[in-house]
Design goal:
The complex is a heterodimer of chains A (475) and B (228). With 475 residues, chain A is α+β, with helices and mostly antiparallel strands. Chain A is built from 18 helices and 13 strands. Chain A folds into 2 domains: 234 residues, Phosphoribosyl-aminoimidazole Synthetase, Chain A, domain 2 (Alpha-Beta Complex), CATH 3.90.650; 149 residues, PurM-like, N-terminal domain (60s Ribosomal Protein L30, Chain: A, 2-Layer Sandwich), CATH 3.30.1330.10. With 228 residues, chain B is of the alpha/beta class. The chains are: A alpha+beta (475), B alpha/beta (228).
Chain lengths: 475, 228
Amino acid sequence: MSLVMDAPGPTAPGAPRTDDLHRRLGLTDDELAAITQRLGRAPNDLELAMFSVMWSEHCSYKSSRAFLRTLPTKGDDVLAGPGENAGVVRIGDGLAVAFKLESHNHPSAVEPYQGAATGVGGILRDIVAMGARPVALLDALKFGWPDDSATRRLVRGVVGGVGGYGNCVGVPTIGGELTFDPTYTGNPLVNVMCVGVLPEDRIARAAASTPGSLAVLYGSTTGRDGIGGASVLASANFDEASAAMRPSVQIGDPFAGKLLIEASLELVERGLIEGLQDLGAAGLTCAASEMADRGGTGMRIDLGAVPRREEGMAPFEVMISESQERMLAVVRPEQLDDVLEVCRRWGLRAAVVGAVTDDGDVTIVDDGTEIARVPAKALASDSIEIPRLAAPPQRRRAAPAPGETPLAHDGLPERGMDPGAVLEALLGHPNVGSRAWVTTQYDQTVGTGCRRPSGEGHQERDRRRDRLAAAGRAA
Amino acid sequence: MKVGVIVFPGSNCDRDALHAARLAGAEAELVWHERIETGGADALILPGGFAHGDYLRAGAIARFSPIMGAVREHAARGGLTLGICNGFQVLTEAGLLPGALRRNTTLRFEHRWVRLSVERRDTAFTHAVPVGALLRMPIAHGEGCYWLPEADIDALEAAGQIVFRYGPPEGNPNGSLRDIAGVINERGNVCGLMPHPERASEALLGSDDGMLLMRSLVESIARVEAAA
C-alpha cells in the first residue's frame, strides 16, 4: 500500500469534504466528523494528513486510553507520569530514574532489523528527552514457533537490530525475555525498554511554555522515509500486502543517534533549552502539537526552514515524515547561539523551524503563506477516544485450584511422567533453553553502570542494577 | 602523571576508560578528536566504541581524525599508547600496530566474558600482572578476528609482540589467528587489545582483573617521570 495523496492545496474554508481522502489515510467517517467538529470547519488536505497520523492508534491510544487510565500513576516519588515522554521516579540521594517500554511490532514484522533498531532508537530518545542518560536497555520478544522459516528470519533480524543499535550507541542490553508461541506466527511482538538516570532537579519537560521562544529542529535531515508509518504500519491490520509497506518503515542510524544523545544531554545539563522532544511517530506534527499542548501555547512551523534530504517534498510529507534521529527543542532566543554551537560540535544539523505562539494553534507556513491551522489540543490531548467492545479471550484457561491436577497444555508432558523425560523435554523446549545465543549478540557491559553476575544464562532473572554504581557513573 | 582518553564522536567506552584510569591513580581527562594536540598527556588511551559509526571498516575513518597526528607524534616520541577494542582497530588502521581486525568468524557481534593469558609480563602495560594469571574480562565486538599473513605472524611471534591470547576455558571467541587478543609494537610503547580491561575495573562489575593493566600503565608513567 502506498500513501496516495493529491497535492495538498488549501481547501476553501468551511467547504465540506466530498472526497474519500480521509479513508485512504486510515480515518473513518466518524473521525472526519469529529475533526470537522473540533475545527468548526472541514480540514484541508494537509490538516487531514496531520490528523490521520496523530489520531492513529499508535499516537492517540484511542482504543486503549480508557484501560490505561485504570492503572495507578500517582505517588509521592512519581516526578513524571502519563503524558510525558517517559515516566520518572525519585530513587533518593537526589537521583531519579526515567523509564519507558514501547512496542515496535508492525514495523518489525515488515522489516525486522530496521523495525527493531528504530524501536531502540526511539525509546532511547524518549529517555534522553527527559534529561536522563540511558544506562540500560531491555527487550521482550515474542515470535511464532521456531520451526517456521519466517520466524527464523524475523528472530535473526530483530535480535540483530536491537543489538545493532544498542551496541553502537553504547547502552547495554541487560535483559529481557524471549517466547515462542504459534499465536505470534508472522506477527511478532517487539517491545524494548530503556532506563535512564538523572539528578531529580534536572528533569526536562517536553513542553513549549513561553511564547516567543524558538523551535529548533536538530539531528538528521528530513526525508520521505516512514511517511505515514504511525497510521499505515502501527495501526492497520496486517495481511500479505506487508512487503509493499516496506517504504513506510523508518531506517535507523545509530551513529547519528549517539551524536544526538550526547548533544541533547549537553543541552539539558547546561540548561540551554526550555523543552525537548523526540521526533518519532507522526514526526514534526506530533512534536509540535504535543509540546504546544503541554505548554498551553501554540507553535508556528515554517516548512521552508526544515532541512531536507530529498527534493520536491510536499508539505504533508515534511510534516509527517518519520525520519529517525531528530529532536525538537524549545529555545529562548538569547540561548540560540550556544545551542547551535553544541549541535555543530557534535556534527548535527540544526535549524530554527518555527516559534512558540500564544494562540493555541499549530500553524504551518510555507513560503509566507499559512497552509494549515489546527488547535494543538485537537491533535494531541483532545484527540478521539473510541470505546471498544471487550470480552475475555476464549483461549484463556482458568488456573487450576490448589490440589487439582493441572491441565496439560502447550505440548508439555503431564504430571506423573518419568521425571527424567520431563526434564529433558523442558530443557529442550524453545521457551526454556539457554538464551545465550541471543544475549551474546548484545553488549551487556558497556558503560559499566550496571551490575550483574558475570556468567551466561538466566540473565533475564539475575540482572540487578546497582543503583549507586549506575547513578555515580551516569549523572 | 596524566592520561588522555581520546574521544571520537562514536566512542562509547570513553567514560569507562576515564573512570578506570582515575581508579588506577592517574589524573585523566577526555581529549576531543578534533583537537590537534593531546593537552600534555603522558599516556593516551584510545577507547572502545564505533568511532565514526564504523559503517565502513572499523577505524577506517578515525585514522583521519585531526587528533591522530598528535597520537602519531606521541607514539613516535615513545609515549605510552593503549588501544582498547575500537581503539585497537584504529591503531591498526593507522599503521601504529601490525595486523588487521576482521569480522568475527561467527559473523556476529559477540559479547562474552573471556580469559586472557598474558604472554609478556615485561611490558609497560603488563608488569603488574602476577605470573600465570588468567585475566577475566569481557569482549564486545563484531570485528575482532586478528589477522596477519602467515609469514608476518611468525615474525610477530618471534619478536615477542604477542602480549595477550585468549585462554581456557572459554577460549577464542572470534577466530583470531593463534588466539591473539592483543599485540604490542616493536618499540614496546603502543599496545592494543580487543577485550575491555576498563570494564573489569571493580569487583562489583564481575572482575577487577583489568586494573592490573591499568595500574601497570599508570606505574609505568610514574617510573618514566621518576627517571626524568
